[in-house]
């Protein structure tokens, strides 16, 4: 881990900041001693203590980024941010822990994928980091390996219900995987889209020459997220295994989650800033071929603005439990 070798033995006093606590926010001071918050309140500097004026600033715990894809090999390229640039940017924004998706690619073990991710991150991070384990296939060898991965400290896996012939798992495989994670006390995050129908619509769009960024959203409509969540919860109703839905993007999907909860299924939900703040107007029109529109290609795609208010409301009332970026640029 990249660290600052400077040692403030006498501590640091952050003065006049907006101190954010679980139950209130107030203007005050916060003392750090030996790397630990020692006290908060209206404090006076101690002899030799370094002080920082935080007037106008919020003083709150470092953020935990739950969903990144740093230095990920995909579609013949690698995502732009590696662990050095990605964690540096995270720290600049107040995030002090990143949970990245180590990925098992076709034909390799999870241990091989995990070792590769450890090598990428080692001595290249400005902040704390951890890993989920993403699966791109399912077989008996991977199932038998899960226990050793959990024993090694990885408690969360990822399964894709999209990307046919690349990462997508079917319901029988999902059932088998959830059975094993339940036995091991682990959890699984699910990318919920109907991969089979996406594949059909993509082929149709390409055959018609509809390849501008605008068409991306129409190959992945909101109902595909809702259907996949409903299908996932149908499987999990047989098991009641710990799991969550990643990057929830639609009001329809949230409705499916609430329906599952009303039937006694405990499902956690994550959404992302892009679905709370951006909408599908970023894709331009059918004729938009400029790269500016292509910058917003992501899966799930940006949605109509009407989905934003239900997602914000879900986040405010606790129906959506956390926000991760799905940073994969």
Notable traits:
five-stranded mixed β-sheet, alpha/beta, globular, 15 strands, Urease, subunit C, domain 1, TIM Barrel, 24% strand, disordered N terminus, 329 residues, 10 helices
Description:
With 329 residues, the protein is an alpha/beta fold. It contains ten helices and 15 strands. It has two domains: 12-59, Urease, subunit C, domain 1 (Roll); 63-323, Alpha-Beta Barrel (TIM Barrel), CATH 3.20.20. It has helices at residues 83-92, 110-121, 140-151, 171-184, 195-207, 222-236, 251-262, 273-277, 291-294, 308-317; strands at 12-20, 25-33, 36-41, 50-53, 58-59, 63-68, 73-74, 77-78, 95-104, 128-135, 156-160, 187-191, 243-248, 268-271, 322-323.
Termini separation comes to 23 Å
Into how many domains do the coordinates divide? 2
Secondary-structure element series: EEEEEEEEHEHEHEHEHHEHEHHHE
| CATH class term of the largest domain | Alpha Beta
Assign the CATH superfamily of the largest domain: Metal-dependent hydrolases
CATH architecture of the largest domain: Alpha-Beta Barrel
> Which percent range describes the beta-strand content?
15-25%
Strand order of the largest sheet: 6-9-10-11-12-13-14-15
Largest sheet: 8 strands, parallel
Q: What is the arithmetic mean of pLDDT?
A: 95
Q: Return the CATH topology of the largest domain.
A: TIM Barrel
Mind telling me the C-alpha Rg?
22 Å
Coarse shape: globular
Going by helix content, strand content and strand pairing, the class is alpha/beta
How many alpha or pi helices? 10
């Amino acid at each position: 881990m990249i660290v600052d070798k400077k040692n403030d033995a006498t501590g640091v006093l952050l003065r006049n900041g907006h101190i954010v606590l679980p139950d209130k926010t107030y203007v005050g001071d916060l003392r750090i001693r030996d790397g630990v918050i020692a006290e908060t309140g209206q404090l006076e500097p101690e002899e030799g203590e370094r002080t920082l004026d935080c007037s106008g600033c919020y003083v709150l715990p470092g953020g935990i980024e739950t969903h990144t894809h740093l230095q990920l090999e995909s579609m013949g390229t690698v995502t732009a941010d590696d662990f050095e640039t990605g964690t540096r940017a995270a720290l600049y924004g107040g995030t002090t822990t990143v949970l990245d998706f180590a990925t098992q690619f076709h034909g390799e073990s999870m241990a091989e994928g995990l070792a590769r991710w450890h090598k990428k991150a080692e001595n290249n991070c400005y902040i704390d980091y951890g890993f989920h384990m993403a699966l791109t296939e399912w077989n008996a060898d991977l199932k038998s390996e899960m226990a050793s991965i959990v024993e090694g400290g990885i408690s969360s896996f990822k399964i894709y219900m999209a990307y046919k012939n690349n990462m997508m798992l079917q319901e029988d495989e999902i059932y088998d995987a959830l059975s094993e994670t339940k036995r091991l006390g682990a959890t699984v995050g699910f990318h919920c889209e109907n991969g089979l129908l996406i594949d059909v619509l993509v082929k149709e769009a390409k055959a018609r020459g509809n390849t501008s960024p605008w068409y991306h959203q129409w190959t992945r409509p909101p109902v595909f997220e809702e259907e996949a969540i409903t299908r996932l919860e149908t499987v999990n109703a047989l098991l009641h295994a710990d799991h969550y839905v990643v990057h929830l993007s639609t009001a329809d999907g949230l409705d499916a989650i609430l329906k599952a909860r009303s039937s006694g299924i405990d499902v956690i939900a994550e959404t992302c800033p892009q679905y709370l703040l951006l909408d599908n107007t970023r894709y331009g029109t059918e004729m938009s071929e400029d790269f500016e529109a292509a910058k917003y290609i992501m899966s799930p795609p940006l949605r109509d603005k009407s989905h934003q208010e239900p997602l914000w409301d879900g986040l405010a009332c606790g129906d959506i439990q956390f926000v991760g970026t799905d940073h994969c640029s």
